[in-house]
Amino acid sequence: MPEDSDIIRLFKAGQREEAFNQIVKNYGERLYWHIRRIVVVHEDADDLLQNTFVKAWQALERFRGDSGLYTWLYRIATNEVITFLNKKRQAQQPDCDPEALSGRLAADRNFDGDRLQMVLQQAIALLPPKQRLVFCERYYNETPYEDISKAMGTSVGALKASYHHAYGKVLEYVKAHIDIDY
Amino acid sequence: MIETEMEKNDNILDRAELKKAPFSVPEGYFDGLPQRVAARIAAEMPQRRSTPLRRWWMAAAAACVAAVVMLAIHLTPSAADTTAAAEEDEELIIEYLAYNGLSGAYLYEELAEAE
After folding, report:
1. CA A67 to CA A29: how far, in whole Å?
2. CA nearest neighbour of A124 among A106, A138, A144, A110
């Protein structure tokens, strides 16, 4: 995999398409899963991933290399996800309603979970956007708080409190909606 | 030691199978990603280049709206209505004009000229 510095050099030397193709190949899948675990639905994740790369293309000329390319892309993707989730909540769209989300996931060919997984996704969908993001990053990826802090611009202490609160809400929801014998 | 139901439930989120996100992707999704991203960028970028043209259209549209509003103010019978209303209290006039969608400041000038 080419180094970030080589890719940036290629981009600034005028071989923009080639350099950007390499960025998409290097980081596309990782970014996709970061987005998908939060928004759940493949079509939404695909749209947000492409939005992320469009914004990165427009901003790459100004990239100073203060962080690695992936960290920079991760921040763009995170902002896209939060904006998307906030818009959905304001519009009271179906994914914010657990039953509607269940229906959508049950019909989704790209969702492979059982009933317990479905209930977990419902619980996560009820979290406010930033809590949802922190919960998914810690729960699924065990991303260090320091890395989440850099992406979201929120202190580590606040993130820890947010995760603890989100974990409690998710656990309570799951316990209330599944059989004890599960 | 027998695990209580409560303890079993409390650990439910820590089960390994739950931590594997239950998602898949369509076959070939990542292989085709660079091409789809390139197509999306190409599709979006021309819209940004048309901004000067969009600005021209917006300016032209704004000028037309302003001309229509000025003509409507000049021609409407509200001049006759406001002549009668002009004898009333000042605040009542402004309120009346705002209710009819007209600028109080503008019509004050008109009434002053008429006098």
Report:
1. 20
2. A138
pLDDT of the residue at B2: 46
pLDDT at A114: 86
Query: Which of A37, A80, A120 should one mutate to test binding to chain B, selecting the residue with the greatest count of B CBs within 10 A?
Result: A120
* pLDDT tens-digit series, residues A135-171: 999 999 899 999 889 888 889 999 999 999 999 999 9
pLDDT given at position B88: 42
Chain B positions contacting chain A at CB under 8 Å are 5, 8-10, 12-13, 18-19, 21-26, 29-30, 33-34, 36-38, 40-41, 44
Q: What is the DSSP string of chain A?
A: ---HHHHHHHHHTT-HHHHHHHHHHHHHHHHHHHHHHHH--HHHHHHHHHHHHHHHHHHGGG---SS-HHHHHHHHHHHHHHHHHHHHHHHT-GGGSHHHHHHHHHT-TTB---HHHHHHHHHHHTS-HHHHHHHHHHHHH---HHHHHHHHT--HHHHHHHHHHHHHHHHHHHHHHS-TT-
Q: What is the DSSP letter of B98?
A: H
List B23's β-bridge partners, or say none.
Answer: A111
